C-alpha cells in the first residue's frame, strides 16, 4: 500500500474524520486539485489565506487580459474609419474599465467558490502549515485548527520578484499587483523586465496612449521565444512608439520632483512610475516544508514529475512552487489533476509539458507549443523549418491584422516538434498545433485536413502544406 501522511513518522493515527486530501492554496493548481477530487469521491479540504482563485484569477491572468481587451477595443474604435465606420475620437474612462475588471474578477471568484461548495469541498479561510499527520490552520478569525490528512497538496503559489534597490512602495515603484489597480492612467511608465508580463503591460499601456519604455538585461525581449516572432512584435511595438532597451542594466531608481529617474548606461529616462516585472518567486516560507524533511531548491519544491509527489510520501506540490515547470495557470491545473490521479488510483498520469501551450497576450498575440527551432537544434535534432506569413490570408486582411506568421518545426522526414503563431487569435490557434505536437503528427498527415475559408486558421493549413513539400499558395 502506498505510504501516506498517516504514517509520516511511523506512528499510525486514528481514522476518525480524516481528509483524504488537504490542499494548501486556492489558486489554479489548488482549486483544480480540490474540484477534480470529486471524480473519485475523495474527502477534501481547501485552505486559502486570501481569495480563492489565486494569482491568476485575482492578480494575474484574468485582470490583465481584461485590461488588454479594453485596450484592444479602444484601438479598434480609434481606427474604425479604416473600415468605413465614422465615430468621434474615443476617450478612455479608466475608472469604468477598472470597475469592469473588478466585476469580472468578482464574478469568477464567486463562480469558483460556488463550484467548491457544490463539490462538497470544505473551505478554510486561513494560513496552512504542514504538521505531523496533517495541516495546522491559523484561521483568519484568530482561532486555530488542525486538519488530519492522508495526503497534502502544496499549492501556495508565487509573488512578484523585485530587484535590489527597487523596493515596492505602491506608487512610484510597483509590481504587477499594483499596476492592475491603477486608479488613473499613468502618463509615463518604465517597465523593468521584458518577459511576458512586461511585454503585455507595455502593449496595453501604449494602446491607451501611455509613454512606455521597456528595459531588459537579455539581448532580446521574451527570452526563449522564437526570434522571428519577437521581430514581428518589435515592429508593432515601434509603431506604438514603445521604446525598447535590451542588453542593458538599469540603476536604482532616483526619486525626483514629479516622478522617477531611471538611468541605464550613459542615458536616463524620467517617468511617473517604474513597473518591475522580473519574474515571480515561490511562496514556500513558513509552510513547514523543510521541517517535513523536504529540501527546497532556491525556494522551489522538487517533485517526481510523474506523480507530482515530493520526496515525502503523501505530500505533493503543484503550480508555481514546483521546480522547473512553467509558471502557468493551465500547467497548475494539469499538475493538480495529475496529483489527484496518483492519490486516488496509485497510477502515474504525468503532465506532457512538451505540449503545454504558452500565450503572450500582446497585440499582436504570440503563442507557442513544443520546441522552438533553436531548442530543437540544441538537442541535436535534424530539423526543417517552415514559415508562412499572414499577409496573404484573407481573413487577416479583412480584420486589418496582417502582421504575423506561423512557424513550424519538424524533424526531417519525421513528426512536428513545435510551432509558433503570431497574429490575430494566436492564443486560440495554437491549440490546433498543440495536438499535432502531442500526437507526434507528420506534416503530411495534418496537412490532409481541411481548414474553412476564409479563416485566420488557414495560415496553419498553408504552413502544413508547405512543410509536407506540397505548397499551395
- Please give the CATH architecture of the largest domain: 3-Layer(bba) Sandwich
Distance between the termini: 60 Å
Structural class: alpha/beta
Strand content: 15-25%
**Any low-confidence stretches, pLDDT <50, length ≥5?**
6-16
| Largest sheet: number of strands, sense, barrel closure | 5 strands, mixed, barrel
What radius of gyration results from the CA coordinates?
24 Å
How much helix is in the residues? 25-40%
Question: Number of domains in the coordinates?
Answer: 3
CATH H-tier superfamily of the largest domain: FAD/NAD(P)-binding domain
**How many strands?**
21
Widest sheet: strand order?
1-2-3-4-5
Shape: globular
CATH fold type of the largest domain: FAD/NAD(P)-binding domain
Count every helix, treating DSSP H or I runs of 4 or more residues as helices: 13
CATH class of the largest domain: Alpha Beta
* Average predicted confidence as pLDDT: 95
Protein model, in words:
With 473 residues, the protein is α/β, with parallel strands linked by helices. It has three domains: 187 residues, FAD/NAD(P)-binding domain; 106 residues, 3-Layer(bba) Sandwich (FAD/NAD(P)-binding domain); 104 residues, FAD/NAD-linked reductase, C-terminal dimerisation domain (Enolase-like, domain 1), CATH 3.30.390. It is built from 13 helices and 21 strands. The strands form five sheets. The chain has a five-stranded mixed β-barrel with strand order 1-2-3-4-5. α1 packs parallel to α8 and α3 packs parallel to α6. 45% of the residues are buried. About 2% of the residues have low confidence.
Amino acid at each position: 500500500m502506498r505510504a501516506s501522511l498517516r504514517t509520516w513518522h511511523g506512528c499510525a493515527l486514528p481514522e476518525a474524520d480524516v481528509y483524504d486530501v488537504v490542499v494548501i492554496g486556492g489558486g489554479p493548481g489548488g482549486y483544480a486539485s480540490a474540484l477534480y477530487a470529486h471524480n473519485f469521491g475523495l474527502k477534501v479540504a481547501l485552505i486559502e489565506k486570501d481569495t480563492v482563485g489565486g494569482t491568476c484569477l485575482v492578480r494575474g491572468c484574468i485582470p490583465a487580459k481584461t485590461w488588454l481587451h479594453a485596450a484592444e477595443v479602444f484601438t479598434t474604435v480609434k481606427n474604425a474609419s479604416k473600415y468605413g465606420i465614422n465615430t468621434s475620437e474615443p476617450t478612455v474612462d479608466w475608472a469604468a474599465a477598472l470597475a469592469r475588471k473588478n466585476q469580472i474578477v468578482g464574478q469568477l471568484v464567486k463562480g469558483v467558490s460556488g463550484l467548491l461548495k457544490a463539490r462538497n469541498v470544505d473551505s478554510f479561510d486561513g494560513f496552512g502549515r504542514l504538521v505531523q499527520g496533517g495541516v495546522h490552520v491559523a484561521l483568519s478569525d484568530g482561532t486555530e485548527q488542525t486538519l488530519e490528512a492522508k495526503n497534502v497538496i502544496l499549492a501556495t503559489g508565487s509573488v512578484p520578484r523585485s530587484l535590489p534597490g527597487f523596493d515596492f512602495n505602491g506608487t512610484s515603484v510597483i509590481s504587477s499587483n499594483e499596476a492592475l489597480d491603477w486608479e488613473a492612467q499613468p502618463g509615463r511608465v518604465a517597465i523593468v523586465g521584458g518577459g511576458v508580463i512586461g511585454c503585455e503591460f507595455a502593449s496595453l499601456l501604449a494602446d491607451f496612449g501611455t509613454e512606455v519604455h521597456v528595459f531588459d538585461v537579455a539581448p532580446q525581449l521574451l527570452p526563449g521565444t522564437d526570434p522571428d516572432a519577437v521581430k514581428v512584435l518589435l515592429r508593432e511595438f515601434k509603431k506604438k512608439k514603445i521604446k525598447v532597451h535590451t542588453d542593458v542594466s538599469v540603476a536604482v531608481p532616483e526619486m525626483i520632483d514629479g516622478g522617477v529617474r531611471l538611468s541605464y548606461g550613459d542615458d536616463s529616462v524620467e517617468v511617473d512610475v517604474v513597473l518591475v516585472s522580473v519574474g515571480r518567486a515561490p511562496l514556500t516560507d513558513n509552510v513547514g516544508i523543510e521541517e517535513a524533511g523536504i529540501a527546497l531548491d532556491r525556494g522551489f519544491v522538487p517533485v517526481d514529475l510523474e506523480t507530482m509527489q515530493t520526496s515525502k510520501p503523501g505530500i505533493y506540490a503543484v503550480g508555481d512552487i514546483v521546480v522547473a515547470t512553467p509558471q502557468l495557470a493551465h500547467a497548475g491545473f494539469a499538475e493538480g489533476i495529475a496529483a489527484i490521479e496518483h492519490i486516488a488510483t496509485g497510477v502515474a498520469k504525468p503532465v506532457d509539458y512538451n505540449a503545454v501551450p504558452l500565450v503572450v497576450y500582446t497585440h499582436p498575440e504570440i503563442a507557442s507549443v513544443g520546441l522552438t527551432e533553436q531548442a530543437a537544434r540544441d538537442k541535436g535534432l535534424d530539423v526543417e523549418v517552415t514559415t508562412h506569413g499572414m499577409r496573404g490570408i484573407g481573413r487577416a486582411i479583412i480584420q486589418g491584422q496582417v502582421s504575423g506568421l506561423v512557424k513550424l518545426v519538424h524533424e526531417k522526414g519525421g513528426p512536428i516538434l513545435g510551432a509558433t503563431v503570431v497574429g490575430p487569435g494566436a492564443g486560440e490557434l495554437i491549440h490546433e498545433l498543440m495536438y499535432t505536437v502531442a500526437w507526434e503528427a507528420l506534416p503530411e498527415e495534418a496537412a490532409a485536413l481541411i481548414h474553412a475559408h476564409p479563416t485566420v486558421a488557414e495560415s496553419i493549413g498553408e504552413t502544413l502544406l508547405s512543410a509536407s513539400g506540397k505548397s499551395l499558395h
